Amino acid sequence: MFAAPNWTLPAGRSGSNVPGMTTAESTPQIPVRLDFEAHGATFYKAVTHLDNAATKELDRVEFDPRLRELVRIHASQINGCAYCIDMHSKDARAIGETEQRIYSLPAWRETPFFTERERAALAFTEAVTVLTEGHVPAEAYEEVAACFSPDEVAALVSLIIAINAWNRIAVSTRTWVPGSYEP
Prior knowledge:
Elements: H1 36-39, H2 41-60, H3 65-79, H4 82-94, H5 99-103, H6 116-129, H7 138-147, H8 150-173
């Protein structure tokens, strides 16, 4: 007869002592492929200017700083950018975003943790980030336009374009080491 295992850890037992857990000491190092800041300096500076311009637009329309970070994290998750996920998760926590909302971003549609406005921004982020399935659907644009002013939509588009640019640099060159960012 099969006996159900006891999955409860005894009080005081640290998760890092659980047999079979992966720790930082046992994970592989992901090598940097190209120091993009050094070898693509002109373009790196241009993307930095693009990012600064997006931030100015976001500031001008007083776009919620926590939602900015959620958009950056979600686009980075879609693009598989480990460095940017780490960076923007740290930045989001530093400005008061909850762990629960950060961790649930990949399944945001299935949670009650996001407002209608945030849901529209996350759906629009997905639509603008993933263009391989066609153009941005009218439904995604209509949802975001119903929740945001035209100036806010423009600022959101700027944000999504900027984070996608950073993601593509980081994913292709691995120029920044995930976990090395400190806010």
